[in-house]
Amino acid sequence: MRLHFTTARGDEVEAEGEPGETLLRAGQRAGMALEGTCEGQMACSTCHVIIAPEWFERLPPASDEEEDMLDLAAGVRRTSRLSCQIVLGEEHDGLALTIPADSYDMRAR
Ligand code: FES
């Protein structure tokens, strides 16, 4: 499925997502600045993304653990999610999201 990323700098990036992989993986493959330090264990918030409002409502709701971790993330918005918790399927074709401005990628330093 197609994914539409907007980087923190405002660049638009189209990427392909594979069914069954996480949004975090697809974003990393597309070169997005998503560190994903804990690799989906919900022990960090470096995979934080902001989902487009029209898509936010269509995703399964965040678990309490995810909400707790999001509380610690910088720059959280109403449609924030942890990308490691979103497993992609064909129903996500066209999913649009933004990488928060204050996310950073240690690998790029
Ligand atoms: Fe750590 Fe998502 S990768 S919470």
Which SSEs are present, and which pair or pack?
Elements: E1 2-6, E2 12-16, H1 23-29, E3 48-51, H2 53-56, H3 64-71, E4 80-82, E5 95-98
Parallel strand pairs: 1-5
Antiparallel strand pairs: 1-2, 3-4, 3-5
The chain binds FE2/S2 (inorganic) cluster.
Task: Write a structural description.
- By secondary structure, the protein is an alpha+beta fold.
- The protein has a single domain, classed as Beta-grasp domain (Ubiquitin-like (UB roll), Roll).
- Helix content is about 15%, strand content about 20%.
- It contains three helices and five strands, in the order ββαβααββ.
- The chain has a five-stranded mixed beta sheet.
- It starts with a strand and ends in an 11-residue tail after the last strand.
- About 30% of the residues are buried.
- The structure holds FE2/S2 (inorganic) cluster.
- The site of FE2/S2 (inorganic) cluster (FES) has 15 residues, from loops.
Q: What is bound: which ligands?
A: FE2/S2 (inorganic) cluster
**Major sheet: order of its strands?**
2-1-5-3-4
Instruction: Give the % helix.
Output: 10-25%
Number of domains as seen in the coordinates? 1
Q: Tell me, what's the shape?
A: globular
Determine the CATH superfamily: Beta-grasp domain
Number of helices: 3
